[in-house]
Design a protein that fits this description.
4-stranded antiparallel sheet; 9% helix; 1 helix; Cell wall protein PhiA; mainly beta; signal; Trefoil (Acidic Fibroblast Growth Factor, subunit A)
């Protein structure tokens, strides 16, 4: 009997160590493709938020430093990321949906239905494009921001991994 309880305990510990499928999450960038139960422990971690300094209807995902007031929660369905946020000039509250991601394009969001997208989660936490998690970069954006670009072509871009986490860093 003691042996079977030991085996069950080992199996339970192994299963709890596996990443669980997140349904409501924050997005962070990290230097490595490893997960951590505490997102602050990820190497080179940065929180992300939607950003559009010119009040258009197409915000991008940018890095957010410490001291933020709040961060968007995301869901993923039909290959599209979804989040709720205020519209331009704080007018209205809308569900923003990620656009189709292609090479050398920023991760953008629109307040309209985008249909079937090409995003997914590998191992329950790495954000993929067409099944690939390698290809994300942090690149210079508008007004000195740092934005997420898929398969970036240009100077000043740094390779990163985009991850879904249950709690934000810092």
């Amino acid at each position: 009997m003691k042996l079977s309880y030991s085996i069950l305990a080992i199996l339970a510990a192994a299963v709890s160590a596996l990443p669980s499928e997140l349904t409501n999450f924050f997005l962070v960038t990290a230097d490595e493709a490893t997960s951590a139960s505490n997102s602050s422990m990820l190497a080179g971690v940065s929180a992300t938020s939607l950003f559009d300094p010119f009040y258009r209807d197409t915000p991008v995902l940018r890095l957010q430093s410490e001291g933020y007031n709040s961060l968007p929660n995301f869901t993923l369905s039909s290959g599209t990321l979804h989040t709720w946020t205020y519209g331009p000039h704080g007018q209205g509250y809308f569900q923003y949906n990620s656009t189709h991601v292609s090479a050398n394009s920023t991760l953008r969001f629109l307040p309209d239905d985008q249909g079937e997208g090409n995003l997914g989660l590998e191992n329950g936490y790495l954000v993929t494009v067409d099944g690939k998690c390698e290809g994300w970069s942090i690149c210079p954006g508008e007004l000195g921001s740092k934005v997420l670009v898929w398969k970036a072509v240009g100077e000043g871009c740094i390779k990163t991994y985009l991850q879904a986490v249950s709690s934000p860093p810092y």
